[in-house]
Predict the structure of UDP-glucuronate decarboxylase.
Amino acid sequence: MRILITGAAGFLGSHLTDALLSDGHTVVGVDNLCTGSLANLKHLANESRFEFVQQDIVEPFDVGKVDYVLNFASPASPVDYARLGPETLSVGSDGTRNALEIARRYGAKFLHASTSECYGDPTVHPQKEDYWGNVNPIGPRSVYDEAKRFSEALTMAYHRYYGVDTRLVRIFNTYGPRLQKNDGRVISNFMVQALKGEDLTVYGEGNQTRSFCYVSDEVEGILRLAHSDEHLPTNIGNPSEWTILECAKAVLRVTGAESKIVFRPLPQDDPMQRKPDISKAKRILGWEPKVDLETGLRLSLEYFRESLTPMEPQTR
Ligand code: NAD
Ligand code: UDP
């Protein structure tokens, strides 16, 4: 297949590109590099089945006939989407529409990268796909959450009204090599802080929870969904739930760092709990994650070590 990946220079997009190339496909990667980096694709410089197009998908574009569109373009970390608020709303709306139009034009299949943020600060725990969520539509996270909720609605509309063969993956916190070291996400911040011997900044009391999925597990789940016929949203994430304080301690164990843990104010609307119910993915895709958090952090250690520069991690 000839596959279009938007957001190909990002963390997940570049890993998906690698996986699809190793499965024998041809990949066209489109990215405007607003949060991604060509460094994530540099190992593909001599790969004849890979082509990179620098393009903002908010503007209409065309890359010729494709068989599949994987729509991953969007700022994804809270620090990035706070900096790029209007752009995040635009890529979720106009950008997703442009990607859907390509699928419609060429009769291609379409998979959209949605998120656990559709559940907001959830009052149902763990989160199942039929939970409609608890999102503040005007809070600081709304530029991301509502963009993703709109993009899910748009994807379902293209399926229902125009018969586009669509899929929706709700991705839960994923980490691993190529996570931008300064994107402010908790794993990047803690790993960089620990490796530099700096204090680990826990927001609030650290009793909010997240469930962290290693990138190879996430990519496998996404590709299984891409090969399935399921049109409704499907959670792909690791259900092993950690408080942020436990996560900080895990990073200290894995890095061997002797950094202190310090506490900083909890950002507004920060979800207090998050854990995917993955019974649907298990049932319809035969998928479940294999890599636990400490193993995944160990697998990411070398990347974070190599990526260290004098640049500071971003804090909110
Ligand atoms: P990332 O920031 O590393 O990658 C996103 C990529 O999209 C970047 O390369 C960026 O330059 C590109 N991009 C953004 N706006 C664009 C635009 N208008 N035109 C073209 N390219 C644009 O983030 P990621 O973690 O790889 O996330 C990829 C996708 O997965 C995003 O849609 C994100 O919302 C979704 N997601 C990720 C996670 C996670 O934990 N990593 C969780 C839920 C959802
Ligand atoms: N967090 C933290 N310290 C940091 C960065 C993040 O305690 O240096 C917390 C943040 O408040 C949130 C959790 O870690 O509760 C996950 O944050 P992240 O930005 O990685 O992703 P989110 O799930 O909030 O989108």
